[in-house]
Write a structure and sequence with these properties.
Blueprint: E1 2-7, H1 15-23, E2 27-32, E3 47-50, H2 66-78, E4 82-86, H3 88-96, E5 101-111, E6 114-116, H4 118-121, E7 132-133, E8 136-143, E9 149-154, E10 162-165, E11 170-173, H5 181-190, H6 204-209, H7 214-231
Parallel strand pairs: 1-2, 1-3, 3-4, 4-11
Antiparallel strand pairs: 5-8, 6-7, 6-9, 9-10, 10-11
Length: about 230
Amino acid sequence: MRIHSLEHEPFEEPDNIARWAKLHHHTLSRSRLFLGDPLPTLSSFDFLIIMGGGMGTRDTDCFSWLPSEKIFIQQAIDHNKLVLGICLGAQLIAEALGGVVSKNAHREIGWFPVVQTNSALSSSFWKIFPGRFTPFHWHGDTFSIPPLCCHSFFSQACQNQAFDYDNGRVVGLQFHLEVSETSVERFILSCAQDLEVSSSVQSAHDLLKGTPYISNMYVLLTRLLDTMITARGG
């Protein structure tokens, strides 16, 4: 399987996605858009992964690559590619599918549980996930659930945490399953200004204390990626 990631920040790398890809002998190519890397050709990959970033989907004046990336994501979906978006990536997918991105009522940063919706409980695709688990969060924006998509998870601070389109061919996750201990440390070092502690924002100390959750997140990440590929005959 040929996998390609679109990356928006030096501290948001596909850490455990790369680990999984290497283990299963998938190729992983990367466009570091923040360094000016070009977008790939549609024929060069089978599975597109869109990473997170501190910018918003509407910040096109500040990030010259963002308009082209939006068009490219729409093309990848239209060309029947597997597509996974994480945080900002999920917001970009939501817009491509007709959803709306806006400020969330609360900034959500830390290890907080997400709970499966009734729609996900009856979905053959989302049965791969438990009804409740604790992933890593770092976001201030949120998305509406696009038409024809299954609303899959919610948290106390953010109603729309995940969705899928076309029976799991396209998936958006507001939360992060891909982080390693190193990447949590990179988030803290790069975005310390966001850590104004509240009921939905944890301290740096508590963020680091949550790293035992990472092993379970890697299990869920691999389950998700394997299921998306298997469903498409990969």
